[in-house]
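Journal club prep — side note

Before the paper discussion, L.F. wants everyone to see what a predicted structure for a comparable chain looks like in token form. Sequence:
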Amino acid sequence: MKEKLRYLVYFGIIISIELFCSLTLNSMGIRKENILMVFIVGVLLISTFTKGYFYGLLASIVSVLCFNFLYIDPNYDFHISDPNDFMLILFFLMTSVIACSLTDRFQKQILISKKNEGISKQLYSLSERLLNVSGIEYILLKGNQYIEESIQIKTNISLEIKEESKNVIPIIGMNRVLGSIEILSHQGLNEDQMIIIKAAANQLGNALERELTYLEQEKIKVAMEREHMLNSMLRSIWKRSKIKK
């Protein structure tokens, strides 16, 4: 409601300014073709300061009506007697609509870019948190903390492999499922929240894969050391038995 009220205020102020400027230019003897540029600028400003097509299209219609009423012969009438004036208004309306469409598309692209930038920063933050973290339990704890801080959603991250659903996101490593993120919130998640959770699952997958690979390498190392010690002991026993003989 506040946003709509703010847009209406912008609309009223810009329309008032363009009318004042056009009347001033008209009193100075400026031709109506040049005065028309003032209305085009006004439409562009309204499209820039508002969102969506509605206010831009409304500004186009209001500007056309004001221009027709004030500067098209006969003045102070909406009737158009000259075909050239009709074409002038038609092209103005077409230009305004195209400009509104392009401005709205540009605004959407900016919002998408900002959203992607925000998600990238959040993922970078999680990646930094997990970079020097060791221990599976600590990695899972950091993942839970990150999701709760980012989107205020309670989750349970574990190595338990559960069937994927709308409330369960798998944690996938290089080529295997390592665990799952269970969403404990009963409220439906929006698209941005799901993107963050799935991206967090990927980051956790990388961290867990690194940790599990390290643990497996340590097990292999310990097993090799045990085998080496066993071989050394057997060699030592064999030598002693040979000496006694």
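L.F.'s comment for the group: Helices lie at 2-27, 32-49, 54-71, 83-131, 136-151, 191-244. Keep this in mind when we get to the figures.
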